[in-house]
Amino acid sequence: MAEPKKTIVLISSEGTEHEVDAAAALECSVTIKNMVEMGVEGPVPLRYVNSATVAKVVEFWSHYRHQHGDIDGAGGEAAWEAEFFDCTIGDLCDMLKAANFLVDEKLLDRAACTVADRIKNMSVEVVRNVFRVENDFTPEEEAEERSKYPWAFDGCH
């Protein structure tokens, strides 16, 4: 008789439980690996990660674990990743925060690259608006930065 599959339970900020294959979680997340090595048992609370984001993290881990047996995902993953990361910038930022907390370098890298691709060629004003960043430069300071680093503004619309 086959051994039952070991799982780890992740608890979202809303209290929703999400089961993930233990092998996938241990392979992907340094945080979870460290918790297990320290003997921490039971569900893993993700107090600042909403349920939708936890579900995306579990989907990311499960996809690579079941498709390839490893998280490296060699070959043919561009289409799957394009669909997986087809979401709002806000959702991508939530995934970045979760990946950062979980110390999942693969998800962090892929989500960060997606954000970078999305904001490439956006004007400073548009990027500020997207990320809700207040402009704290005086007009003179901004003009000075634009003249010092003109290459940074090439191709922006």
Automatic annotation (TrEMBL):
InterPro entries: SKP1, SKP1-like, SKP1-like_dim_sf, SKP1/BTB/POZ_sf, Skp1_comp_dimer, Skp1_comp_POZ. This is SKP1-like protein. GO terms for biological process: jasmonic acid mediated signaling pathway; protein ubiquitination; ubiquitin-dependent protein catabolic process. Pathway: Protein modification; protein ubiquitination. Keywords: Ubl conjugation pathway. Residues 6-65 form the SKP1 component POZ domain. Belongs to the SKP1 family. Part of a SCF (SKP1-cullin-F-box) protein ligase complex. Pfam families: Skp1, Skp1_POZ. Residues 106-152 form the SKP1 component dimerisation domain. Involved in ubiquitination and subsequent proteasomal degradation of target proteins. Together with CUL1, RBX1 and a F-box protein, it forms a SCF E3 ubiquitin ligase complex. The functional specificity of this complex depends on the type of F-box protein. In the SCF complex, it serves as an adapter that links the F-box protein to CUL1.
